[in-house]
Write a structure and sequence with these properties.
The complex is a heterodimer. Chain A is an alpha/beta fold. In chain A, 49% of the residues lie in helices and 14% in strands. Chain A contains 20 helices and 13 strands. In chain A, the strands form four sheets. Chain A has a five-stranded mixed beta sheet with strand order 2-1-3-12-6. In chain A, strands 8-9-7-10 form a four-stranded mixed beta sheet, with helices on both faces. In chain A, strands 4-5 form a two-stranded antiparallel ribbon. In chain A, strand 1 (39-45), helix 3 (52-65) and strand 2 (69-75) form a beta-alpha-beta unit. In chain A, helix 10 packs across helix 11. By secondary structure, chain B is mostly helical. In chain B, strands 1-2 form a two-stranded antiparallel ribbon. In chain B, 32% of the residues are buried. The chains are: A alpha/beta, B mainly alpha. Chain A binds chain B through residues 7-8, 11-12, 14-15, 18-19, 21-22, 25, 80, 83-84, 86-87, 90-91, 106, 109-110, 112-115, 258-259, 261-262, 265-266, 390, 393-394, 396-397, 400-401, 404-405, 407-408, 428, 431-432, and chain B through 13, 16-17, 19-20, 23-24, 26-27, 30, 50, 52-56, 68, 138-141, 157, 160-162, 248-251, 262, 265-269, 272.
Amino acid sequence: MRIQAGRSLRTPWRAASALLGVVLLLAVLNAPAAGQGQVSIAFWHAMEGIKAPNLVGMVRDFMRENPTIKVDVTLQGSYTDMVRKVQAGIAANALPDLVMLGQRHGIPQISDSGRLIALDGLMTPEDRRDISPALLKRYTWKQKLMVMPFQISTPVLHINASRLREVGLSPDREPTTWDELVEFARRLTRDVDGDGRIDQWGFNTHGDVAWHIYAFIYQNGGDLYGPDGRAKLDSREVVEAVQFWSDLVHKHKVMPPLAHAGGTRLFVAGNLGIFQRSSAFIEGGAAQIGTRFDYRVGFLPKKKIFAVPNGGGGLGIFRSTPERERTATALFKWLTNTRGVARFAKETGYIAFRRSSIALPEMQAFFADNPRDHVAAQQLEYARSYPPSYADGAVWDGLETLLERIEADPRADIPALLRELNIKANRELARSR
Amino acid sequence: MRAAHAGRAMTTRRFADLVTGYGFILPSLALILAFTFFPAIFGFLVSFTSWDMMSPTRTFVGVSNYVDLLGSSEFWHSLGVTMYYLVGTIPITMALGLALAMALNRQFAGVAFFRIVFYSPMVTSTVAMAVVWLWMYDPISGILNYFLVKAGLPPQRWLGSIATAMPSLIIMDIWKYVGYDMVIYLAGLQGIPAHLYEAVEVDGGGRWSRFRYVTWPLLAPTTFFILVISIINRFKVFATVHTMTGGGPAGATEVIVFYLYKQAFQYFNIGYAFAIAYILFVIIFCMTLVQWRIGKRVHYQ
């Protein structure tokens, strides 16, 4: 009772302070207004690690050339983080002006939101001639170009040429067929200290295994989707490609099972002969390897044809006000024109995908000094792609799980697993339509 | 007249009290309404639609998300994986928590230090901690394999093998939560009156009798509380799976919340993901109801 009375005495003060709290909260929730005299735009990117400063440096130079424009450039994390933030941004109506998206990360769904501007109007006939149609296809949704290729990569073979030499192979020649790949990898797989355990492996891929099986599927003349857009993962070509993957682990024993996450470390330490990973790794790989061994880069081998999936992503422009859209377009053009693409490629190791960029003398000089980057650029000619699909997430995730299963189990029924996955992927398509 | 006046003053005061009270809870109430109740209701409605969270159109699909879900082998698989996780973590964590609590329920030099040490994983960021464990579990350069090899044991694949991925997550979980269970058990132990132990001693009972007839029965409400909280927490496990295994290898650690996350943010099936969330809610709700029913029988006075 006494406490009750005490509380009542201080009631006005308490009421006042509670109200003050509410007012302060509301004040915080009200965002401050933007500055005047300048156009401010936001650019969300996904260049993690050592590549981020290069992109930020380019944007800074753009601002120096355009003093009335202020670009707020922020790293949003991986492509996966980015698509989550875009999802939230659409719901909250808080999107940036320019966005960097991953090629397999929700382009159909983001396009369907109606927030991205179709880029066809920005593409000149020269642009169309300058960029491979196969590449543009990956970013074209419902007949409209929604994202412009920018940070482009393909898988390449990262080769420890010192090891090749050690086992009596020519360091100047990479394996050009699946059979040769097996042959090379067999010779490179060794138990050096004689303890009964393999210390040096012949072949491995990076952790994004689905992307690497795409390469095998294409090389075997297969495809992920049929002409009608439905998943076609139960075809003979796909079964053979997955069987080859299984054979690398179980029959030839040249690829360590379920060890893709450790592939980079194994390669950098010099204990992996041939490492299939994105060309975007070249710069970072070279920095980590230093002079430890002779690091070279080669084309992926062929079965029926030479083929690689394309990867990376590009830039999109979100709808806003006419002024901000104009500003975002200016930055977009500055980054993706001939010089922008060349500079970005030189600084980050992504592929110079414009023919005009490759033709620049500065780019040729760069290739002369950096033969590894040159290989990646040349291989782009063999890059295959497919139009974005609602089932991309299901196909990617499903193949990843499937490969883990076959690596764990030498007797896995590959055709049955692929049939099951194909049904699942097509169910995903049906659900989204 | 004076009485009536006093009465009115009381009402005014009571009204002022009311305003003050609600004024104080308003900020948190607003947050709870905006970030807990609204999403819960909104999510329930969305679970009857097909939506990717980005498209302006939401198609009403009735209960088909729920029908698909109950017929999906992946859903049942993820539920099974979650059960594995519950059964693997909860009994051992509770047993160790109790053992530690009993060991530290005494006065000796450094007792506070040990209590803090065992509790500290609880207040560490889960993701930061998961990254450290990732290093420890590394099959090539991890410290765990270093010790295994030193001890003449075969090195393990840890998170990289279907058989050991889940046990690896379980070991880490036990390490994280054992301190929490310990603290709750400590509180329980300190509530047990000393005269009961004296009674056992008078009757000639040893350590086991003390535990069997006093400690354990009197800790029943504490045990029950920890069990309820543990089941709810373990059902919601996500961050470690997301950071350490991504649900792999081959779905071996794909717990239900990770399955939900994948459906929402990789497959863009928000309606379906909300249906999973509601099924999860129903499961936890039912389990808690059953526990309360059993719980009524374990309260000693």
